């Protein structure tokens, strides 16, 4: 059964549609210098869950009949709680409005002869509070929070049992949507009726013909213009298409948001969503697109149009009704914004005068250029006025809600049918020097980056543009002398695209359209992707943005980009070409960095500023020392880096002793790498994967005596391994203060981004990227990693006295074993990171927190949640590792390790590389705060 048959489903869709683009940035409403109470925490959880629901809820899908009634009841339960939670101060003037059969003309803009949408009319009797809230939202242009944060709140979470019930209902609804999405994915996804794509229907895509190069929006747009031509209303219709990641990088069946000009008045626009939806369509319902637009305009509602090879179907009555809100939008063309200097370089004066908020930064400009380049790739071979119309600044628009911040601008491109003759039968022959589409797009890229319009008239015929093409090529060549970046390479891709076409055509049997889109992707789109997200590339080199002088017409970099880094491929990030004097001998080295795993060593090596052994080994080693060393400089310290031959404290102890014999001047040893974490340290905040722990002291938790009834550790921590030297204790004490910890975390986050942006060999890929909060899973300590869906395995049956885990289960992931997410432990910090990711603030989400405390060290890998909690509670440790105890007494030592798992049976290797990077980043940040001792005077 379709979800649209459910009043409860439609009610939640009505709320979602009215809040689209209306929610303020999610911010906890904290009282300064105080901890939030339970009600405040619950309100934050409720807000996060409700926002998440709005992002994952599809417009419509098919639900099995046995699940339909359960879904409908859950939806009504949640609506009931929300109805009681609506903020009274917002709705009191409007409550009961839509239950009245008649309205007086004096009653305000909602009333008079206005007929409310049927979603409000249907909900009014059962949920009067929500009905009044919908009326309020339909007229208010403001932005809101839901249950927490500054400003106006739409709902108030009640205390006591009512609040608990509301929390339970929103959680159940979220779980239902997530579970249904997971089940759907396993069964090959929801089957949508979609347009045929002739170029791809005859054969499968090859390895290098990725989804991103398929025709997407152009399929729907072409069908709409075909409908207009068939009905021949006598008007030249235009479409303003929203440029969105949803259709550019999402599923091919994504419906498109747009504004369509109506008839008879071409200046009147109708808001519409067109494409594929899962609805039941009767061929007899096929309708004229002009009639559908007029009908939606008369009702004051958004038009929903289903389009397939049979034609267009107005399905607005089958979808949740959404009021058209054209009067609440303001539009500016790219040409207007260029004239207003909104794309010019942001200067210090702009910051001081507050004008920078209205300007586009370098990353925003690159993101816009990328989005338009994907449009170029999609529409290049369509019968549209892309050369003479759409790639001019006057036909790219930015639309935002009236009164909304400049950052809320959404780009649209204007599309019209081509008025000239038919398209050339040989598409590839039209691509040459002076091609109007590519030349106009190259000009557009330069205008976006430069911040001003370029007075260059482009003729529809390529031959008439050859001189202008040569002038633009010359300008780009001059600009590249100052430094070449990926943005300029994308401009070059437009100008020299024809040089790549013959080679590509000979290497494939694909159609001309496919060849062209592939080359556009390789020569234009991919370079802009590197600008927006350098980590997405598997190339060996790092994107180095061109930083041209302010006097030049083309300016690629923002002020923050000016100090670009020179990079040593595959090794270290060098912030300066200035070299420090190399130490004269081994006894001049003060810092040793010890790693147990190659992945830990690799991460540290990326933060070495200068290597002393780049050409050869200058320092050697002492007699009898089997270690192999790497020497270099991190900041002001000369360091020696060593990789252990094996994990464990025995290997660490032997390496440490030899290290001390070869480098007698060492004053500090940093054991850097990955560890297992205690998720809820006693008296501490939540510890998440990727967070870093610093050793205040080390506990040998497996050193002691085994009695018949218990294991007793031999001695206390300090007596067993000794106290850290006073200078180390003083340094760690600073990191336990808010100021010291904040500074350390800020610098660590900066170094982490350097590692992620560093060049990597193809085989490494993007291994240091943040895996995402959704991959951070903490199960209840008693819930074991066994087969939960295989009845034939012994470990799936369990036993009341013991737990048996088969060998196969130990090497499989939780999803493969059927580990149930209902046993996951919910954590406030994790929810906050998820929200940051939804808002696109990944750099903030990935930033690690740093903890100082006791670390457990032993030769046993802890892979049991119950044993982890028992040891942690008994000895007060916050993490487990295997090398610290082996080096603690040789040289003053700090263990700097990042959490890659929770030391339970569910541990895997997903987080290891990222954790190694956060540990290395914290290690370097720590060295920057470590005070160097004055060297003795030589006189």
From TrEMBL:
Superkingdom field: Eukaryota
All copies of domain DUF7580, residue ranges: 209-534
Gene Ontology molecular function terms on file: catalytic activity
Record-annotated Nucleoside phosphorylase domain positions: 590-707
UniProt-listed GO biological process terms: nucleoside metabolic process
Signal sequence extent: none
Pfam family, one: DUF7580
Gene3D superfamilies xref list: Nucleoside phosphorylase domain
Protein name, entry field: Uncharacterized protein
Native source organism of the sequence: Penicillium solitum
